[in-house]
Amino acid sequence: MLRLVGEGAGPGGQAGPSGPVQSLYYAPGVANSGDLEPGTKAITNTSRPASPQYSTTLVVPAPPQGIAVLRLCLRLWFNIASNSSDYAFYSVVANGTEVLSSSTSYNATGQQGNAVDLTLSPLVLGSPNQIDIYFWCFNGNGYNLDGVRCFLGVGSRRTYTSLEGAALRVDWQGWASVTALLKREGSGTPYLHLAPAADFRLWWQRVSGDGACLEVPAVLADGLLLVCYGTYDRDLNYIERVQVTFLQ
What is the reported pLDDT for 1? Predict the structure, then answer.
């Protein structure tokens, strides 16, 4: 349930906020591997190799008590300098579990990206997550990689029509003020909306665009959800940081 400050105030109505103030601040940002390929690597193996060609660890900080992370998004980006293989295949394994496996379009070159939503498992907040990346080719002619990166954030790759849930929940009953910064890794338009805990598809306020700031001065809430999505399902749309101020 959400109300504007003073809405319904008067006889039998809900008064505006008053009382002591407390705040929660969470800045998960985005975990970025940096470029894992300093030069150029030729991929000529025609099946997934026994060992990954690239490995990294990514850490997303754990939230303070009162904020719960519900959804993480992992994005793989790579650049194909040249391709004689027809298709480039790839797989991402997180903490020993394969979470992404796909291929590029026919004879693709240039920047490639893909993403997957994860409801925490097999990832762990506040600790290094082992990420292993495998590449192989359709035929022995192979292709050349000259850039590989991996990103992890509190958010989603989903479009609005394919949403499966919120990225973050705030556990609070009463008056709250919410400010959150929206960011994106990819090329589409990201969206962030503030929803009641009862239904993540509803929203009281929505913003869009990389670097957009959602600002809700005061609402009367029985739990709050922050929901990320975008226009391209291979992007990572994520919450850079959020502050929630409560009135006791």
Answer: 41
Give pLDDT tens digits for 124-151. Answer: 999 999 999 999 999 878 999 999 999 9
Nearest residue to 61 (alpha-carbon basis) of 241, 217, 230: 241
Query: Phi/psi zone of residue 50: left (φ > 0), alpha (ψ -120 to 50 degrees), beta?
Result: alpha
pTM of the model: 0.90
What backbone torsions phi and psi does residue 161 show, to the nearest 5 degrees? -70, -15
User: How far apart, in Å, are the Cα atoms of 74 and each of 37, 91, 151?
Assistant: 18, 12, 6
CA distances, 150 to each of 49, 95, 141, 199, 226 (Å): 19, 14, 26, 31, 23
Q: Of the residues 136, 152, 168, which one is the last residue of a structural domain?
A: 152
Spans of the chain below 70 pLDDT: 1-20, 248
Distance of alpha carbon 224 from alpha carbon 218, whole angstroms: 12
Task: Output the pLDDT for position 85.
Answer: 85
Q: Which domain holds residue 101?
A: 32-60+74-152
Q: Please tell me the total count of domains within the chain.
A: 2
Sign of CA dihedral 45, 49, 51, 54: positive
What is d(CA 60, CA 125) in angstroms, rounded to the nearest whole number? 6
